TrEMBL record, chain A:
It comes from Antarctobacter heliothermus. GO terms for biological process: transmembrane transport. The keyword Chloroplast does not apply. InterPro entries: BPD_transp_1_N, MetI-like, MetI-like_sf. It comes from the Bacteria. Keywords: Cell membrane, Membrane, Transmembrane, Transmembrane helix, Transport. The lineage of its organism: Bacteria, Pseudomonadati, Pseudomonadota, Alphaproteobacteria, Rhodobacterales. It is found in: Cell membrane. This is Peptide/nickel transport system permease protein. Its main location: membrane. Residues 111-316 form the ABC transmembrane type-1 domain. The keyword Metal-binding does not apply.
Automatic annotation (TrEMBL), chain B:
It comes from the Bacteria. InterPro entries: BP-dependent_transpt_permease, MetI-like, MetI-like_sf. This is Peptide/nickel transport system permease protein. It is a multi-pass membrane protein. The lineage of its organism: Bacteria, Pseudomonadati, Pseudomonadota, Alphaproteobacteria, Rhodobacterales. Residues 185-392 form the ABC transmembrane type-1 domain. Keywords: Cell membrane, Membrane, Transmembrane, Transmembrane helix, Transport.
Amino acid sequence: MNSVLKIILQRLALGLLTLFIVSIVIFTAVNMLPGDFAEAILGQGATPEAVASIRRDLGLDQHPIVRYFDWLSGALRGDLGNSFAQANFASFVGDDSGVRVSVAQQIAPRFANTMFLAGVTAAIAVPFAVMLGILAALYRNSVFDKVANISTLTSISSPEFFLAYVLILFLAVLNPVLPSLSNIYEGMGFGERLQKTMLPALTLTLVVTAHMMRMTRAAIINLLASPYIEMARLKGIKPMRVIIKHALPNALAPIINVVALNLAYLITGVVVVEVVFVYPGIGQLFVDSVKIRDIPVVQACCLIFAAAYILLNLTADILSILSNPRLRHPK
Amino acid sequence: MMTLFWIAAGFAALLAAGWVMRFAGQMATGNKPAFRDMSLAVAFGYVLGVAVIVFAVWYYFQPAVTEQGMAVAGVLFFRWAVQGFAIFAIVAWIFRFFGRMVGSAGTKKLFRQMPLTAAFGLLVILIYAVLAIFAGAIAPYGQAEVFDQVNALPGGNAATGGNPAHLLGTDQIGRDLLSRLIYGAQNTVGIAFATTCLAFFLGGTFGFLAAVAQGWFDQILSRSVDVLMAIPSLIFALLLMTIASAWAGSEKWLLTIYMVLIIAVIDSTRVFRLARAVGMNIVVMDYIEAAKLRGEGLPYLIFREILPNAMAPLLAEFGLRFCFVFLTIASLSFLGVGIQPPLADWGTMVRDLAQFINFAAFSPLTAALPLMAAGAIALLTVAVNFVVDWMLQRSSGLKE
C-alpha cells in the first residue's frame, strides 16, 4: 500500500510542477504582447497621466518576474486580478461611474455552468459509450458492429459545429423538442436547466463517444483470445456473461484511461459548442475575451483549462496504476 | 413527458415483436439453432433494424410539398441525405470497380482488398484535391467579387428571391456563395495542408534529431514538449492568436500566416513524440551503426537511413494530424480568429450563414447553406479517417 501512495504522490508532484511551468509559459506568452496594456486599453483617449495611472494600478511598472509571482500568488488565493474590459477603466478618463469586475467574479458562475454541462455530458456519454463498446465486442464483425463503427468514426471526425447545427436543425427547428439557445441564468429550476443543457450535451456526447467505444471494444476483444476466456466459454457460460464477468474487469484499466482522457478532451470541445449554443460557460467567456483582448481573463481561463486538463490526465494515470496490479507493485 | 411515454411504449412493443418473431422462427424452422440460441436482445436488434428501415422507406415517400404548396423541410432533408448517401456509395463502388480493372498488378490488388469505406475516402480526397487545385477554373466567379444583389436566395429561381446567375445565392455583401464554397477548398484545405507539412517538418526533424543525439538535447526537447502538450491545443492556439492579432494589427493576411505558424508549432509536439519513439527503435539497428562507422553525417543518417524506415507510421499519422489541423483551423475560423477575409473559408462561412438554419421550415435550401459549408469540412475529415483506418488495419491486423 505504501508504494502505491508513493507513486501517487510522485505523480501529484509531477502534475503540480507541470502546472507551475505551464503558468510560466502562459504568463510569458501574454507578456510578448507588443506595446503596453495601458495604451491598448485607453486607445484614442490616452493622456500620459491616464497611462501612468493605469500602469501603476496594474503594476506594469514592475519587473516581469515580480509581476509573475504577484499573479501566481493571487491566483492561488483565488484573486485573478481585474478584467480589462473598457467599462472598468472608465474612472481613469474622467468618468467615475465605472464599477470594477474582478476576473474571479466573472469566471465563478460560468465555471459552475461549464462543470454542469461537462457533468451532464459525462453522465450520458460514458455509460452509452461503454455499453456500445461491449455490444460491439459481443457481436463483433456483425452488421451492428460495422454500423456502430462507421457512425462513431463519422461523428468523431466531424467538426463540433457541424454536429451542433445538424442537431439544432432536427431537434430544435424542424421538431421543436429542445431549445436551441441555452440561456441559463441563476436560480433556474434543475429540470429546465437540464432541458436547456441537453442539446450542447448531446453534441459533446457525439464527439466523445467514438473514442471511448472503440477503446472498450478493442480492450475486450484483445482479452477474448486468452485461455481463461476460452475456459469460461467451454464451461458453457453465455457470451454476454463471459464478457461482463470475465473480460470486462480485466479490460477496465484501458477503459478508465480512455474515459478520463476523453473528459479532458471535453475541455477543448466545450469552447466551440458553448459558442454555438450561446451557453454561458467559461469557453464562451474565453472566446469573447480573446476577441476583445481582455488579457487577465484570457490568462485566467487558460490557466483553469490547463489545470483541469492536467488534473484529468493525472487522474487517468493514477487510476490506471491503481487498476493494474503489475504497475501497483513495480519491481 | 408524453414523448418519454411514447418512447417507452415503442420500446416495449418492439421487445414484444422481437419475442414473437423469435417464437415464430422457432416454430417455423423446427427449433433450428439459429433461432433456438437467439437471445431476446438479438431478436430485439433485428426487429429494431427492420422497424428503422420500414420507417425510413415510408418517410422517404411522404409528399415533400403540402397541398398549399409549402415545402415539407423534414422530408426534403431526409431525401437529400438518402440520395447523397446512395450516390456516394454507388460512385465509390464504381470507383473501386474501375480501380480493379485498370492499373498495374499492385494497384489492382490494392483495390481488390479495399473496403467500400476506404474507396469512398480515396475518391473524396481526390475530388477535393481537384477542386483545390483548379478552384480558379471551376468557380464561376472570383472569391472576393462583389455583386449588386445581396442576400440572393439559393435555387436560382428569380420568383422566389433567387438569381439564375448565382446558383447558391449571394451572401450579405453580395459575393457568390457557390464560388466561395469552391474557393474554400483551396484556402481551408490548402492552408491546413501547408500547416501539417510544416508541423511534420518541424516535429519530424527534431524527433529524429532527439533520437539520434539523445543525452541532454533529447531531454530538453522532450521535457519542453511535455509542457506544451499539457495545455489543451485549441486553448493554447486561442491564447497565442490573441497575441498574434495584436502583433498583426490591421494587416489581416499576416494573421493567417501567424495562425499557420502557431498551429504548426503546437501540432509538431505530437509529431515529435511519434518521430522520436519510432526513431529510437530504428537508431539501435545494425545498419545505423554501419552507416555511423562509414562516417556518414547527421543529415544522411536522418534522411537516408531513418526516414525511409519510419515512413509507414508517419504517413498514417500524417492523415490523422491533417484532420486535427484542419478541424482546429476550421474551429478557429468559426470562432472568428482564424483565416481572415477576403479569403473564402468554410469555418467563417458557417459562422456567417448560421442564422439561416432557423428558416428551415420556410426555405429548406437556405437552411442547408451553413450545413453545406460545415458538411464540406466533415466530409473531408471523415474521408481521411476512413482511409487512415483502413491503412492502420492493413498494417496491424486487429486481433480476432
